[in-house]
């Protein structure tokens, strides 16, 4: 069994750049703002029904400054809510993205220093 077949069998949705096969990435639905990061590529999804403060929990994850870690957050903003991100999130040009319209937002967070700082990036909003 090839590596891509093994990953596919695990139920994991990214494109394998080596042989072009689709690999599925799990989606974890959040009930609150706690993002319990895992040792596998995961997309976290939330539909906030009230103001939400996010925290990034690394309890299940070993981070180090010798490698990067990236995760995605999908926010289904069917009604506009105030979202607050950890102080450790650094946004491009020090500007928190405007999430004040309904729609589905995709954000990406990366760390290269073991989780001390997270670099946040708004990928876009879709209706």
Q: Which helices and strands appear, and what pairs or packs with what?
A:
Elements: H1 3-9, E1 14-15, E2 22-23, E3 27-29, E4 34-36, E5 43-46, E6 52-53, E7 55-57, E8 69-77, E9 83-84, E10 89-91, E11 103-111, E12 118-126
Parallel strand pairs: 3-5, 4-7, 5-8, 6-9, 10-12
Antiparallel strand pairs: 1-2, 8-11, 11-12
What structural category characterises the helix and strand content?
A: mainly beta
Count of structural domains: 1
Q: What is the H/E string?
A: HEEEEEEEEEEEE
Q: What summary fits the major beta sheet?
A: 6 strands, mixed
**Strand order across the biggest sheet?**
3-5-8-11-12-10
How would you state the average pLDDT, rounded? 86
Please indicate the percent range of residues in DSSP E strands (runs of 2 or more).
35-45%
Task: Give the % helix.
Answer: under 10%
Low-confidence stretches: 1-14
Distance between the termini: 40 Å
**What is the 3D shape?**
globular
């Amino acid at each position: 069994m090839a590596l891509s077949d093994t990953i596919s069998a695990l139920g994991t949705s990214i494109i394998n750049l080596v042989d072009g096969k689709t690999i599925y990435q799990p989606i974890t639905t959040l009930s609150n703002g706690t993002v319990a990061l895992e040792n596998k590529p995961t997309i976290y999804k939330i539909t906030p029904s009230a103001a939400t403060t996010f925290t990034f929990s690394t309890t299940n994850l070993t981070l180090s400054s010798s490698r990067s870690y990236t995760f995605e957050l999908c926010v289904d903003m069917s009604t506009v809510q105030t979202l607050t991100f950890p102080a450790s999130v650094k946004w491009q040009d020090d500007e928190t993205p405007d999430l004040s319209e309904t729609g589905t937002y995709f954000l990406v967070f990366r760390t290269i220093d073991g989780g001390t700082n997270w670099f946040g990036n708004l990928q876009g909003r879709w209706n």
